[in-house]
Amino acid sequence: MEASLHFRGVRIPCYSRTPRLMHLSQVSSALSPSRSLYAAVENACRRSRLRAKSEKRRIEAVLGEEEEEENATESRGSDAVPFTCVMKFGGSSLASAERVREIAQLVVSFPDEKPIIVLSAMGKTTNNLLLAGEKAVSCGVSNASEIKELSFVKQLHLRTVHELGIDASVISVVLEELEQLLKGIAMMKELTLRTRDYLVSFGECMSTRIFAAYLNSIGVKARQYDAFDIGFITTDDFTNADILEATYPSVAKRLYDDWISDPAIPVVTGFLGKGWKTCAVTTLGRGGSDLTATTIGKALGLREVQVWKDVDGVLTCDPSICPVAEPVPFLTFDEAAELAYFGAQVLHPQSMRPARDGEIPVRVKNSYNPKAPGTLITKTRDMSKAVLTSIVLKQNVTLLDIVSTRMLGQVGFLAKVFSTFEDLGISVDVVATSEVSLSLTLDPSKFWSRELIQQELDHMEEELEKIAFVNLLQHRSIISLIGNVQYSSLILEKAFHVLRTNQVNVQMISQGASKVNISLIVNDSEAEKCVKALHHAFFESGDLSELVPEFGFGNGSASLLPVET
Ligand SMILES: Nc1ncnc2c1ncn2[C@@H]1O[C@H](COP(=O)(O)OP(=O)(O)O)[C@@H](O)[C@H]1O
Ligand SMILES: N[C@@H](CC(=O)OP(=O)(O)O)C(=O)O
After folding, report:
1. In angstroms, rounded to a whole number, what is the distance separating the alpha carbons of residues 542 and 340?
2. Using one digit for the tens of pLDDT, what is the confidence trace for 385-400?
3. Which ligand number lies closest to the CA of residue 327?
4. What pLDDT digit, counting tens, does each position of 106-137 carry?
5. Residue 311 C-alpha to ligand 1 middle, in angstroms?
6. Which amino acid residue places its CA nearest to atom 4 of ligand 2?
7. Ligand 2 proximity of 270 Cβ (cutoff 6 Å)
8. Atom of ligand 1 nearest to the CA of 89
């Protein structure tokens, strides 16, 4: 089993190099300032570092020239690279032939850009493939071809190629293979995580083949790439793989070399990689194409990564909860990462990491409304007039209260608790602690990771009960207030006023040393009501500036909008 450590939904694998280890130490400072907790985190870091070193040696042995290639990439420099940006289009932008046409027009409407295109699967293809796989397990081989979701996927793609006037042969082999795979699953009567990744990969493999063929058919030279064939090397954690450092030089070299020998717009599958030990297709977790895009951006040192969505940028709240949510014009990588970790579906939780490391600006745009300015995510921004940026809701989390069974001052209590989580591979989101007690949240839905099922929760409880009294509370929600924690008193005062008015009792609060996030834990049943009320108070009533003397009076909510640096 691969050793790994989870904090705040972030998996820190043993392969990691410095950036992720640094992230862990940043996370440690986000926790309440308890020495024992720091010690626990430090120990975990040390263990992880040692493992990372040995893994690094193994990877380098496998990949041989990694360092040389890295230097070669650096010396090429961004000026010499024939690409200026990544343009990533998600499933919501690619739901039909008409949308494919519009996206192609959008790509060519920026003549100054030399893009690398990253695509997700069309529409709801990934969900349909997953459902088809689940049905195949129990439907019997002779019925596998008739699975409703398979027919839906087939029809969508065949109709699309037909309507675009391109040859169906670009996807017919892929579709045949897909059907064979479902028959195989039906025969085996099981769907492993590895097979599940292979199954969903057909979505991105088809959308990119169709898009590249369409660009070529309208006279725009394009070349399709499967990410797993061009150097996207990942851990072997199927359904939630991590990109390994070796990916950056490999991908840069392949795209660059191909361009030099035969220039064409690259159209790359998002979401997919190749496990470094198994060599099997892996996926980067749901919504992982954003991460593919920022990885390519960093690999080639590009000017910008654009992620095209179906909303006008990152919004002040999930629009399905608050339809009046407004776009946030500017964000820092830290704010965007926090927003994504804490459940804002608009960005993949890990996607900011390569962008932050490579300092590549990320622009979130609306493919249905390209003129809208969107959200620009950069390393820094002027925070002097920013109070609250966005409210994020993560539902169905589990709250765990742990109280040491020993006396006050017991050495190593927190270290033991955290090593239990490490051993069980359980991800911790929010933590509040005193010397002998600890409250934390776990995310059982973990849609970008394996399921934390009841059995695992029971096992965890059993382990922790060896050293502590444990109280497990399910169906809780984390409301994250992303913004300028310099104004935390103001934010908290207002938030608590709203919650008190709505007769909601906050069960846990965590601000820690994070500069951008205050988390409040409430019951699931009250969560949406709270978010709506908070959004109304912070973003719809427009009087927040009056509470911040240095902002001056009477500026209204507009004065709270961030200013680009
Ligand atoms: N804070 C938020 N800002 C913007 N969109 C959000 C936010 N929270 C949730 N969403 C949802 O995220 C969706 C966009 O993300 P996603 O579906 O992953 O796009 P794509 O599939 O095109 O990559 C939006 O349609 C919106 O409903
Ligand atoms: N198709 C994959 C990967 C992805 O990134 O999708 P989207 O960009 O549509 O969220 C998924 O549905 O998870």
Report:
1. 26
2. 889 999 999 998 889 8
3. 1
4. 999 998 899 999 999 999 999 999 999 999 99
5. 7
6. 287
7. yes
8. 22
Atom of ligand 2 nearest to the CA of 271: 3
Two structure tokens written together for 513: 């040393």
pLDDT band at 513 (very low <50, low <70, confident <90, very high): low
Dump pLDDT digits (tens) for 189-212.
999 999 999 999 999 999 999 999
Ligand 2 and 286: CB distance under 6 A: yes
In terms of C-beta density within 10 A (0-12 exposed, 13-18 middle, 19 or more buried), how is residue 407 classed? exposed
Nearest alpha-carbon partner for 31 in 517, 515, 520, 510: 510
Reported CATH class of domain 389-543: alpha beta
Boundaries of CATH 3.40.1160.10 in the chain?
85-309
| 410 touches 35 (CB < 8 A) | no
Q: Does domain 85-309 have CATH number 1.10.1200.10?
A: no
Given the cut 0.85, state whether the ipTM is greater than it. yes
Q: Where in the sequence of the chain do the CATH 3.30.2130.10 domains occur?
A: 389-543
Confidence band, pLDDT 50/70/90 cuts, at residue 551: low
CA 478 – ligand 2 centroid, Å: 24
Q: Which residue has the tokens 């017919």?
A: 172
pTM: 0.82
